[in-house]
Amino acid sequence: IDMLAGPSELTVVDDGTAPAAWVAADLLSQAEHVHGSVVLVTVDPARVEEVSREVARQVEGQVHRDVMVESLSRRSAAVVVPDLEAAADAVNAIAPEHLELLVADPLALLPRIRHAGSIFLGPWTPESMGDYLAGPSNVIPTGGVARYASPVNVETFVKRSAVVMYSPQAFAEQGPEVVRLALGEGLPAHAAAASVRLENPQGTQNP
Q1: Is there a single domain that holds both residue 28 and residue 130?
Q2: Do 51 and 105 share a domain, yes or no?
Q3: Given CB 3.0 to 4.6 Å as the disulfide criterion, which of 87, 111, 122, 123 pairs with 18?
Q4: Is 115 a catalytic residue?
Q5: Which pLDDT score, from 0 to 100, does residue 144 have?
Q6: Other beta carbons within 10 Å of 128
């Protein structure tokens, strides 16, 4: 609705405080989607191997194992960063559809996140809660669109109008700029709509 939404994406920011089994399970939950993509952003290099082992263990016996393996082999990444500030920078560059902040203090990190569709805070808020129960919109920008778009919500369907009103004093101050810009764009009639008021503010008729 009103955007290209999909395939599914999940980025997990990890500081080592959540169990590796939980991190792996969350990554697999989105790899379960056809063409899903998953990214682990961690401040601990050892976690890449730890979570990878858990992913390899948990993927065995999964109903959608083939889909998961394809997603993991072609559309997954692990990013090691020096600190959580750099992790936020990585997230903002990715602009993921879904973001989990599996860190000790997710509320402290949240203000640094500018570009993400839906954000899930803390170890007790896996993305699947948002899919089925928590309540936010599940029509979420993907493919980096979260840099400039939001999840579909009630406001998406609210029609608005822009309302503008100048006083004579404000128009006298800013009208000349409109004339200059319009002439610069090669639209003299646009300029005339302003200049006719500037030249004859009383609106008197020509003899």
Answers
A1: yes
A2: yes
A3: 123
A4: no
A5: 85
A6: 16
